[in-house]
Structure to design on (339 residues):
C-alpha cells in the first residue's frame, strides 16, 4: 500500500517554510516536500520526506506516485514577478502547474477520492491601467481588472482558469463524463512578509527587504516611491488562509479563486513601522521606475468578502500588529548572534 501524503512543491520558498512549520506541529500528516534545491534543513518537520527535483521532470513525478498516494497538493513552486521578467520563457509556470493538475487527476482515479489542489495566486493577476484608476478602484473584486502586465501575473491568471476548468467543466462534451477528481482552490495573495525567510525575485520584496535590513543594522534603499501602495500580509495569516481554504467542504465554495487581504500600506508607511521597531534604521527611497510600474499596476487593496462569506476568512494581523508583535520581535530573534 502506498502511504497517503500531502505533496508540497516549492517547499524551500517563503510560503513553503511557513506551511511545513505549521504541519510539523501536527503529527497527523505525512508530507512530501519537493524543491529544485535540497530542502532546507531548517524545515525539520515530523513525517517529512524531502525530494530534490523538478515538477517538469516526469521521472521525478513518476517516482513520487510510485511511492506515495497523494490526497492534497500545495503547489507553491513558481518564479516570482521580477525574476520572471528577466527570463519569461522559463517563467512559464503554467507548464508545471498543468503537469501537477494532471497528476492530481490520475491520483484521484487511482484512490477514488478527490485531490485538493491548493494554488497560491497573487495580486499580480490584476493590472490597473494607471494610478488614477488604481486610486479610484480601491478594494478590487476577483472578477475585475484581470489584465496582468507581467509574465508571472499572466501565468497565475491562466493557472487559476485551468484549475477552475478541471474542477468544474472537465470533459464537458464526453458521453461518459465524470468529474476530474481535482478539487482546485486558489488564493490571490498580497505581498507576503515573513520574519524567518527573505523573498527572492519578487516585486513586492521591498517590504521584507526593508525590515530584514533594519534588523541587521544595514542601510536600505527602497526601489519604489514612498507613495507606492499595495496590500500586504504577515506570513502567519497566509498560512491561516491556506489552512482554512484547504479544510472547508467543497460544497461551501462559490468560486475557485479568492482574494485574501490584511493591510494596505504605502512604502512610506512601511518605513514608519520599521523605524518604530528599529529607530536607527537607515532607509532611503531610490525608485527603480520599471519595477515601480509593476507595483503601480497592482491594486491598492483587495475585496476579500467572498472568502469571509464562504469560509469565514478574517486576518489576525493588521499593519501595527504585524510589525510590532510578529515581524520586529521574530526578526530580532532570528538575527540575534548565536552564542
Ligand atoms: C511578487 O512580488 O512577485 C510576489 C507577489 C506579489 O505575488 N510577492
Amino acid at each position: 500500500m502506498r502511504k497517503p501524503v500531502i505533496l508540497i512543491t516549492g517547499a524551500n520558498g517563503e510560503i513553503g517554510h511557513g506551511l511545513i512549520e505549521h504541519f510539523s506541529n501536527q503529527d497527523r500528516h505525512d508530507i512530501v516536500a519537493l524543491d529544485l534545491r535540497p530542502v532546507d534543513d531548517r524545515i525539520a518537520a515530523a513525517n517529512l520526506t524531502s525530494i530534490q527535483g523538478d515538477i517538469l521532470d516526469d521521472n521525478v513525478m513518476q517516482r513520487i506516485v510510485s511511492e506515495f498516494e497523494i490526497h492534497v497538493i500545495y503547489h507553491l513552486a513558481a518564479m516570482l514577478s521580477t525574476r520572471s521578467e528577466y527570463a519569461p520563457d522559463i517563467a512559464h509556470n503554467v507548464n508545471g502547474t498543468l503537469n501537477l493538475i494532471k497528476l492530481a487527476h490520475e491520483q484521484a482515479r487511482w484512490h477514488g477520492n478527490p485531490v485538493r489542489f491548493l494554488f497560491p495566486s497573487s495580486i499580480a493577476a490584476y493590472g490597473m491601467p494607471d494610478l488614477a484608476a488604481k486610486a479610484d478602484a480601491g478594494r478590487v473584486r476577483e472578477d475585475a481588472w484581470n489584465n496582468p502586465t507581467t509574465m508571472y501575473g499572466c501565468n497565475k491568471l491562466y493557472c487559476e482558469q485551468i484549475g477552475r476548468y478541471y474542477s468544474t467543466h472537465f470533459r464537458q462534451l464526453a458521453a461518459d463524463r465524470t468529474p476530474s477528481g481535482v478539487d482546485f482552490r486558489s488564493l490571490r495573495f498580497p505581498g507576503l512578509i515573513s520574519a524567518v525567510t527573505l523573498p527572492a525575485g519578487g516585486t513586492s520584496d521591498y517590504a521584507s527587504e526593508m525590515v530584514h535590513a533594519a534588523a541587521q543594522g544595514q542601510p536600505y534603499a527602497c526601489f519604489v516611491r514612498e507613495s507606492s501602495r499595495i496590500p500586504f500580509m504577515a506570513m502567519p495569516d497566509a498560512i491561516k488562509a491556506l489552512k482554512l481554504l484547504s479544510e472547508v467542504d467543497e460544497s461551501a465554495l462559490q468560486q475557485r479563486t479568492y482574494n485574501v487581504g490584511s493591510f494596505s500600506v504605502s512604502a512610506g508607511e512601511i518605513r514608519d513601522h520599521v523605524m518604530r521597531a528599529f529607530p536607527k534604521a537607515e532607509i532611503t527611497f531610490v525608485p527603480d521606475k520599471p519595477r515601480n510600474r509593476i507595483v503601480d499596476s497592482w491594486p491598492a487593496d483587495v475585496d476579500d468578502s467572498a472568502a469571509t462569506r464562504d469560509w469565514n476568512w478574517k486576518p489576525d494581523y493588521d499593519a501595527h500588529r504585524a510589525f510590532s508583535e510578529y515581524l520586529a520581535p521574530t526578526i530580532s530573534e532570528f538575527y540575534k548572534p548565536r552564542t
About this structure: The pocket of 2-amino-3-ketobutyric acid is lined by residues 80-81, 122-124, 152, 191, 202-204 (CB under 6 Å). The first strand starts at residue 3 and ends at 9. The radius of gyration is 20 Å.
